[in-house]
Design a protein that fits this description.
single chain; 153 residues; alpha+beta; Rieske Iron-sulfur Protein; 10 strands; binds FE2/S2 (inorganic) cluster
């Protein structure tokens, strides 16, 4: 029967410990590098029927990080909530019937067209598709907003 010396036991314990720490570090690093699209920001977001989008104001769609906008009962736009200037979230201000960025003051019409401020263009729009009578927002297909002085619709 062989006896393990204290020195060889400690050496093996240190090797196992360092191996576990290296494995934990690798798992953590991979987790940080992996895209987080599934966490609250889906590639395709099913919403509601086009005729259910309110004619006034906008409908916020948090899962898409955007808004649905009914344009004169004829068209529904899906706008990104991300400001085209430096990326702040742009809320819709009901009292002024327009989007107003709280960071540097860019303003956009209800349809996402540029009004004023440092933003280089209007709000970006997502592609949409009607599937089984419901609007699906494709958050990976983005059309840049129209340049200042032009209208999307
Ligand atoms: S981030 Fe919106 S105006 Fe600067």
């Amino acid at each position: 029967m062989s006896e393990i010396s204290r020195r060889s036991f400690l050496s093996a314990a240190w090797k196992v410990g360092f191996g576990l720490m290296a494995a934990a570090g690798a798992v953590t690093t991979l987790g940080l590098l992996k895209p987080q699209l599934a966490a609250g920001f889906a590639a395709i977001v099913r919403t509601i029927a086009p005729n259910e989008v309110p004619e006034a104001g906008v409908l916020e769609v948090p899962e898409a990080r955007g808004y649905l906008v009914n344009v004169d009962g004829e068209e529904v736009l899906a706008l990104s909530e991300t400001c085209p200037h430096l990326g702040c979230r742009v809320p819709f201000i009901d009292e002024n019937n327009r989007f107003e960025c709280p960071c540097h003051g860019s303003k956009f019409t209800r349809e996402g067209d540029y009004v004023e401020g440092p933003a280089p263009r209007g709000m970006d729009a997502y592609a949409t598709e009607i599937v089984d009578g419901v609007i699906e927002i494709h958050t990976t297909e983005v059309t840049p907003g129209p340049p200042p002085g032009t209208e999307r619709t």
